[in-house]
Design goal:
The chain has helices at about 5-15, 20-35, 50-60, 65-75, 80-85. The termini are far apart. With about 110 residues, the chain is mainly alpha-helical.
């Protein structure tokens, strides 16, 4: 059976249609726990069945997931995230016109 079919069934059966906010974090932690990444210490317990330790174990074992998050942050071009990252980065060598898209706006 293919993973996308199993994942769709998993998400439907649990009614995981939204991954925003705290509930999204809880659901992601539950998902990686169900994938087999269960922190025996239950570090940073969120709910009875989800803990942040599960997510940390998953990320440690799957660097591609970390890369996907980094690429997602790069691609969304959020004005707030740009500002926050610029505050902690030496940007003196960057061109100012690189800050905006072709229309002069952030995406």
């Amino acid at each position: 059976m293919q993973m996308h079919k199993i994942m769709d069934a998993y998400l439907d059966q649990r009614e995981y249609y939204n991954f925003e906010g705290r509930r999204g974090v809880e659901r992601l932690c539950q998902l990686v726990g169900d994938l087999g990444y269960r922190d025996p210490q239950h570090s940073m317990q969120l709910t009875r069945t989800a803990c942040v330790g599960n997510l940390l174990m998953f990320l440690e074992d799957n660097p591609g997931a970390i890369e996907a998050i980094v690429n997602w942050v790069r691609d969304i071009n959020s004005k707030e995230m740009v500002s926050s990252l610029a505050d902690v980065t030496d940007t003196s060598a960057l061109c100012e016109d690189d800050d905006e898209d072709e229309d002069g706006e952030y995406e």
